[in-house]
Amino acid sequence: MAVGHKKSNYNSEAVLKEIYPKIEQGLSKRLAQWKQCISRFIHDRSQALFDSMPVDRIYYHDSDREILFDALGLDMKDINTCMKHTYYADIKKFNPQAAKDSTTIVALCVVRYFLIKKDQKNLDLAVIYLSFSGKLYPSIHSGSFTFAPTKYRHIMEYVVNTRLTNKYELKRSGTVIGAIKTISLLWVDSYKKEFMDFDDEDVVYVVQQIHNRIKSFMKNIATLYYEAYDNKEYITYDNDAIPEGESGGAYHLTDNDMFKLQKYTQKAMERINTSQVDYKTCKYSADANVKTEEVKQIVESILNNRDNIKLIRELVTSMIGSYMNQSTNKDVVSTAFFSYATRPKPNSKDETINRIKDIVMELLEDNSVRFRKRKSREATKQSYIKSLLTYFTLTIIAANK
């Protein structure tokens, strides 16, 4: 439980009374535009966000801020005027600086809106946007790495694969976006009281806390990175040293095809993370044993649990990699991929195919009471398995068109 902070006598409520009502009104009328803004934001930097290591700068541009404000129907000058009414507006060296940034405050208000609404799916997206806005992750990354580790990716690979244990969120989540989302959601959960009260001291406090958490995340990795660099501990990985299921090394693919595998996976995960469950896809995935509504309920249960994201990524990567390993054209936007990915493969000795079966069974066991009751009948069990595989196959295809 978070420890509270002592309030001062010169507090103010500019964010709560002047800015938040504008964001509340904007989201109540322009939710679709905000979702489009978030989808575009994630899409434009998806390769870096869904990377397994924080090597790239993830820049936040003036154009991103303009798109956000336009999506919510906000006037930037109006918001900046409201910001001048905070108790800290005239304090030149105020810390945290992010609290004086209008984009940070607007994004923070969006987080509060979905927290109050108890809308978990959109809250997930809101904390991602806030965390990767200019004064947080991009600024902290630049401060932690004087030069972006992009050129020395092999050093970061060494650190992630040999130095990070499961106590590091990046290791547990598997991607940059997954780690930051988990950290940010824990932050929201820790400071619900401050989000409800939301006077300007509360605003400053929660902004400082999310900044501290992301900074701690980055500092821990940067420390190991520079230790490895200074001590020359790192090694350069060849294809055989790349973890299975992440880059295609397990599928005996060429470098070019490995890159395709990564891109296919990133686009699919982006769609899964930023979109609602698609009813039309559920309808295509249903059959006589598993009706459309049941498919929808199962997929929603899977996607609403953020702990499943790493498992879903492994499933998507394995489905694509297994297909590419035996295909000549390597194109997932094809009937050949759909046929291969959804076709039963009984008695297979292929480790990847068997791993796909294990993941699907785990997801069904954990997310469908009806499946657990009905799985004793083999035909019914296979219907559930095919329905879930069909949903993810169609999602992969749609994401990569």
Overall description:
- The protein is mostly helical and 401 residues long.
- The chain folds into 2 domains: 14-237, no CATH class; 269-399, no CATH class.
- It has helices at 14-29, 31-44, 46-49, 62-72, 76-83, 102-117, 120-131, 137-144, 153-163, 169-173, 176-190, 192-197, 200-231, 255-274, 279-285, 292-304, 309-326, 335-342, 351-367, 369-374, 378-399.
- Helix 2 runs antiparallel to helix 4 and helix 9 packs across helix 13.
- It is globular and about 70 Å long.
- The chain starts with 13 loop residues before the first helix and ends with a helix.
- The model is unreliable at 235-249 (pLDDT under 50).
Short description:
This protein is mainly alpha-helical and 401 residues long. It is built from 21 helices and no strands. α8 (137-144) runs parallel beside α13 (200-231) and α9 crosses α13 (200-231).
- Beta-strand portion reads under 5%
> Helix segment count?
21
Bin the helical content. Answer: 55-70%
Could you spell the SSE succession in H and E letters? HHHHHHHHHHHHHHHHHHHHH
Which overall shape is indicated by the principal axes computed on the Cα atoms? globular
Residue-averaged pLDDT: 89
Radius of gyration: 23 Å
Straight-line N-to-C gap: 45 Å
Tally of distinct domains = 2
Low-confidence stretches: 235-249
Number of strands: 0
Structural class: mainly alpha
The largest sheet, given as strand count, sense and whether it forms a barrel, is: none
